[in-house]
Amino acid sequence: MSMSLKVMSFVGLCLFTTIMPVAADELPAPADLPVVKELPDPLVCMDGTRVTTKEAWESKRRPELKTLFQHYMYGYFPAAPDAIKATVVAEDRNYLGGKATKKLVNIAYGPEGCPTIDLLLVIPNKRPAAGAPCFVGLNFNGNHTTTDDPTIPLAKGWMRPGKGVKDNKATVEGRGTSKGRWEFENAIDQGFAVVTFYYGDVVPDNKDRNAGAFPFYRPGGGKEHGPHEWSAIGAWAWGIHRAVDYLTSDKEIDAKHIFAIGHSRNGKAALLSAAFDDRIAGVVANMAGCGGSGPSRNHNPKAETVKRINTVFPHWFCDAFKEFNDSVEKLPFDQHCLVSIVAPRPVLFTAAEQDQWANPDGQHQVLIAANPVYKLYGLVGIDPDEKVEFNKLLGTTLHYHYDPGKHAVTKEHWDVYIRFAKAHMTAAK
Ligand code: GCU
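^ thats the input. predicted complex w/ alpha-D-glucopyranuronic acid below
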């Protein structure tokens, strides 16, 4: 039962080609950037001009912001591979009592020796002719932790220490340990497919920048990574793009309704993936916080700072980002600009009162500050005067949800994701 989608052809230089903007060499060093105290105006370009139309946004400011985010924060993405090779390694059409189909699909995206992605898909059997809308998101500990199903293979890659992990390898003890975060049956019952893979299938979540897919995509080869080179969060986001490569070819999935989701560090990657891939219909960043949905210009003393995140997780962002540790006000963007790149597609941030580390109020402000870009598309983002209340889904295209709980993913959160996605099923096209 093997399906070769396309023949891989990694020829010539294309593997090492990065999306280098023409002007990258001319971008100022971080120290030479001007101080901007509050969230910068997303519509004002580096040359000081203001965009006032959707066309100017798309042809000038949006690509400029993509360059800036890569140059100063996440590192430059490598070009997408010419083709992926997807192999369906297992399939059960009678899953969840016959309500669903489970598929395990291996995605080879790189040259010989490069890690591969093991995608777990649970798809409703009752679905429209166009296929099922779906959520795609990274998991922290392997597909085998998202369900008790004993047939799901253990994740292969390096794993952070924790329950069900021995010598940085997954063990059977991990089976089902994250199942509370993955509401397969609930989503199926509401018509949605859920697709996930282990974030370490792309690069491991450790400081080794020569592990996982990193060395296969290093411009010019070698062991040293450059200051603007691909980071772990960038790599995880790029991995989601490879999953989308597959999903858009699977007839059982509605290619027009692929929503990226992610919690915490994987929420940062989800938001980045949506900003850099227009095939993604919308995005949910659950308590993603600093480096994702939370502002770098942070006014919450309990929230994570750029300096702290860069110190504890130096591999998450490119080295250039560290130069902003003590001068976040020199960043020529803030996270509302990343949200703005997603426009006109919908965005949902879910935050919690007991998760001040992820800066709930800051996340709300980030959404509000992206409003002007949605307005260019004739869309209402989020009403700044709409009162924040527990368990209320705020916003029209940019959504905020706040609950009294902790840093977590619960069934209630999934119900909110599904409400959000349903609300944008046609608008998302
Ligand atoms: C740490 C980190 C956060 C991150 C979180 C997670 O708390 O400081 O930035 O979001 O881990 O991914 O669980």
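Confidence is low (pLDDT under 50) at residues 1-22.
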